[in-house]
Specification:
Oligomer: single chain
Number of strands: 8
Mean pLDDT: 95
Order of helices and strands: HEEEHEHEHEHHHHEHEHH
Strand order of the largest sheet: 1-2-4-3-5-6-7-8
CATH architecture: 3-Layer(aba) Sandwich
Strand content: 15-25%
Distance between the termini: 53 Å
Radius of gyration: 18 Å
Number of helices: 11
Helix content: 25-40%
Structural class: alpha/beta
Length: about 290
C-alpha cells in the first residue's frame, strides 16, 4: 500500500484564513470557559456544531452569513478550544453554560436566531429555552438533522475506530470512510478539507454526545416553548434512514406550526456537502 501523506498544515491554513476574519473570545461561564468566534454585524445568528465537532462544522456559512448578520459560533463546552464541563454532562448544563457566555455577547433587546446541527440541534432547543428563562426572545429556532427526538436511528455500517497503532494513511482512510458512512451522501464531496476538519474535531472532543442524542430530551424541551420552529434534513441523512416520518410526527406533537424542509439527495452534513443549496434554504427560512 502507498502511504498517504496528508497535508494537515495546508488545510489548517484554510481554517485559519476564515478564522482570522473573526473576533475570537474566551468567556467564563458557571463551570467552563467557552471559545466563541464572531463575524459581521446585525441580528445575532448563533450556529451550534454537532457531536464530535467544533465551529468547523459551519465553515462554509461563517463568512457568507456575516454579510447580513452577526454570526456567532462557539466550540461548545467539552469540544474544540472550550474547557470541559463538570460531570454529569447533560444538555441542560451545556445550554446553561452557553447562555452564561451569550449574556456577554448580545443584549436582551436583540432577538437571536439559533441554528443547531445534529447534537447541536438538540442543544439549540435547550439553549432557546434557557435564553427565554433569562428574558431573551429568540426570533427563530432552526434545527438541521437534530438528535434528541427519541426516534430510531437509521441503520448504517459500523464506523471505523482509530487507535494509536494506525499509520497516517490508516487514520486518513478511517476518517474519510466515516464521513462517507454518516456525514455525506455523495462520497465525491468528502474532500481532504472535510477529512481535516473531522480529524481535528475528533481529536479534541471530550463529551460523549451519542447517548444524549439517543434520548427524547429535545422533544421534551420543545414542548415547553413556542419559538417559530424550522427543521431541515438531507433526504439521504444516514442518521435518519427510513425514520423521517417518525421524527416529523414527534415534532408536530410538540409544535403544531413546525415547518420542514427535506433536500433531495443530500446527507447529514448538508451545509458542507452542498453549501449553495443549504445557504439558500437557510436564507429563505431566516427571511420567512
Amino acid at each position: 500500500m502507498i502511504e498517504y501523506k496528508f497535508n494537515f498544515d495546508k488545510h489548517l491554513k484554510y481554517l485559519s484564513a476564515i478564522e482570522q476574519h473573526s473576533k475570537k473570545s474566551f468567556i467564563n461561564s458557571q463551570d467552563s470557559k467557552v471559545c466563541w468566534r464572531s463575524w459581521g454585524e446585525g441580528t445575532p445568528l448563533i450556529f451550534l456544531h454537532g457531536g464530535y465537532g467544533s465551529w468547523g462544522h459551519w465553515i462554509k456559512q461563517a463568512i457568507p452569513f456575516s454579510k447580513k448578520y452577526r454570526v456567532l459560533i462557539p466550540d461548545m463546552p467539552g469540544f474544540g478550544e472550550s474547557d470541559d464541563l463538570t460531570l454529569p454532562h447533560t444538555p441542560e448544563k451545556i445550554a446553561s453554560n452557553l447562555a452564561d457566555t451569550i449574556l456577554e455577547l448580545i443584549t436582551l433587546d436583540e432577538n437571536p436566531i439559533i441554528c443547531g446541527f445534529s447534537f447541536g440541534g438538540l442543544i439549540a432547543g435547550h439553549l432557546s429555552y434557557e435564553l427565554i428563562q433569562r428574558g431573551f426572545k429568540p426570533e427563530k429556532l432552526i434545527l438541521v438533522g437534530p438528535g434528541g427526538l427519541g426516534a430510531k436511528r437509521g441503520e448504517m455500517r459500523d464506523m471505523i475506530p482509530r487507535h494509536s497503532n494506525m499509520s497516517e494513511t490508516d487514520i486518513y482512510n478511517a476518517h474519510k470512510t466515516n464521513l462517507e458512512i454518516l456525514m455525506m451522501h455523495n462520497p465525491n464531496k468528502v474532500d481532504d478539507f472535510a477529512v481535516h476538519i473531522q480529524k481535528k474535531n475528533t481529536d479534541s472532543h471530550r463529551i460523549k454526545s451519542r447517548p444524549i442524542s439517543a434520548t427524547d430530551t429535545l422533544a421534551i424541551v420543545l414542548g415547553k416553548q413556542n419559538v417559530p420552529l424550522y427543521v431541515v434534513w438531507g433526504e439521504k441523512d444516514a442518521s435518519v434512514g427510513v425514520y423521517l416520518e417518525d421524527r416529523m410526527a414527534i415534532l408536530r406533537t410538540q409544535n403544531i406550526n413546525v415547518r420542514f424542509h427535506v433536500e433531495y439527495n443530500l446527507g447529514h452534513w448538508i451545509m458542507y456537502e452542498d453549501e449553495k443549496i443549504f445557504n439558500k434554504i437557510l436564507q429563505d427560512i431566516i427571511q420567512d
